[in-house]
Amino acid sequence: MRKTIIHTLACVSLTLVMTVTSLPANAQQRSHLRDSLSKALETLAYHPDSVDLILKKASWNIELGQWQYAKDSYDDVLRLEPYNLAALFFRAYANEKLNRLNFARLDYETLLTIVPGHFEAQLGLALLNFKDKHFTEAIDMANRLVSQYPDSAVAYAARAGMELERGMCELAEYDYTEALRRDSANTDYLLSRADLRIRMRLWNAARRDLDTLVALGIPQSSLKAFYRRLRR
Hints:
Layout: H1 2-21, H2 27-46, H3 51-63, H4 67-80, H5 85-97, H6 101-114, H7 119-131, H8 135-148, H9 153-165, H10 169-182, H11 187-199, H12 203-215, H13 224-229
C-alpha cells in the first residue's frame, strides 16, 4: 500500500508540473490534443472501467481547459477508487476552475487526511484559501509549507505572491530572493522580483534582474517595458 501511494504521489507531482507549465500555446497544439482525446475516448469505449484510461482522458480535458468534462471523469475514477490520489487532486483543481471552491477544498482536505503533509495538496489548499479571501489562513499555510519544505523554491515563491497581493512588498522581495537561491534560473521568479523591485524603487537591483533574464535567453525586446520603467 505504501509503495502504491509513493508511486502515485510521484505521478501526481509530475502531472501537476506538466499540466500547469505546458498549456497549449497555439491552434496546432490544440488540434493535436483533441486528436489525443478522441483516441482516448475510442479506447475507453471498450474499457469503460479502466482507471488509467479515464485518468488519461481527463488529463486531455484538463489541458484543453474542459473543466466540467475533467471533473466528471474524476468523479468516475473516484466511484471506482475512492482514495485515488491523482483523481482527488485534479478534481480539486477542476472544481476550482469551475469556481466550486467548497468542493475543491473538500477534495484537498480529503487528500491530506490520506497523505498528511502532501506538498501539492497543501499548496493548492493555501492558494484556494487566498483566492477565497481567507488571507490569514492562506498565509499561515504558506508559512507551514516553507517550514516543512525549506528547500522548496515553489513554497517561497507561493508565499511571495500572497505577500505581494497583500502589499507586503519587503517580505515578498525577501521570499522571491529565497526562491531564486533555490532555483536561480527561474525566469518567472526573476521577472516577478524585477517588477517588484521597480515598484520599490530599487532601480539597480531591478536592472540586475532584467540583465540576468537577458543572459538567460529572454529577448531584451520583450523586456523593453520593464527597462523603460527604470529611472535613468
